[in-house]
Specification:
Radius of gyration: 14 Å
Order of helices and strands: HHEEEHEE
Helix content: 25-40%
Low-confidence stretches: none
Distance between the termini: 32 Å
Number of strands: 5
Mean pLDDT: 88
Structural class: alpha+beta
Number of helices: 3
Strand content: 15-25%
Shape: globular
């Protein structure tokens, strides 16, 4: 486990940390065909993000993100560089931007083939990450 977390210490930007985390998930996990939604969960105090997959999605009710039908081995992205005094909406915007940029940088990841991808803080509204054309989502 020490080797896994040591890769995060070598990176400096949040985008780099998230990129390494997602590439690790991509390489070490099978994504079941019945997963139709992913949620990147954010927490206070800042510093971590997690990822879950769900067999259901409801654009009108964010409770679908409580369905943890797929949990990657390294569910939690640790050691993000976010000051504690940063406003929550700024943190959300930065993390969303990082993920959208990674979608562009790594368009062939299996994770991006999921039709519904969201991000948000626990007990808050989820924000849809919609950075790929719908035709891209065919699995």
């Amino acid at each position: 486990m020490e080797n896994f977390f040591s890769i995060f210490r070598k990176k400096k930007t949040n985008k780099d940390i998230i990129e390494q985390w997602l590439l690790t998930i991509e390489n070490e996990n099978d994504l079941p065909e019945n997963i139709i939604a992913l949620n990147f969960g954010l927490y206070e105090p800042y510093g971590t993000m997690d990822l879950i997959g769900s067999k259901s999605y409801d654009a009108q009710n964010d409770d679908w993100a409580c369905n943890e039908d797929w949990i990657p081995v390294h569910r939690i992205c640790p050691m993000l560089n976010i000051p504690e005094n940063r406003a929550w909406n700024e943190v959300l915007a930065e993390m969303k931007r990082c993920i959208e940029e990674l979608m562009q940088d790594h368009p062939t990841l299996k994770l991006w083939k999921i039709a519904h991808i969201t991000i948000g803080f626990a007990d808050s509204d989820l924000t849809v990450i919609d950075n790929m054309p719908k035709s891209f989502f065919k699995r």
